[in-house]
Design brief:
With about 210 residues, the chain is of the alpha+beta class. Helix content is about 30%, strand content about 30%.
Amino acid sequence: IAWHTRTLYYRALSPDPVIKARPSRAGEGLQVMVYVRDQEELFARICAFFEGIRYNIHEARIYTAQYGYALDTFQVQEAGGADIDYRDLTAYIEHELAQSLRLKAPLPPLTKPRLSRQLRHFPISPEVSIQKDDRGQYQVLSIIAGDRPGLLYRIAWELVRCGIALHAARIDTLGERAEDTFLITGPGLHDARTVVRLESALVSSLQT
């Protein structure tokens, strides 16, 4: 909270994306903060950026403010687990991710996932469920799956394809197991058959 406040207190209504990265306080990798006007495909675009530079997202907190801005924080790490001086990468990520969000380029196609040796031998079957939240304002999408590079981008891709808007998310990785929760809305979510199709599409995508 202190980090966010120091960075944003004088830029609460910034017309340009505010991207800040720093070495993680929780261990290896980087913490990356994204503050930008909310836009279509925002979560998918951020996930595509990290996949493109071969960084895994291990944790994330996604929030959308009532005044139309998104505040997202990601814990990321180089996919190969190499010994890297992350301080040299912060400026690159801050510039290139901000540029990607400004340009709003088309989303890249999905790539073939790279499974770890453990997941190849001991796969985790994806579990997907969509339920109404307690207040009925959002739908809660819960996903349990084997963690691998590009996992979140596959989820984001399916949400975009189905016209689903993301409002908040909690992303957690426990070893080889990802447990993710999303607050989503979309006109199709009021139809039970559409919900079942989305659940099936997500399971199918996470199995390939």
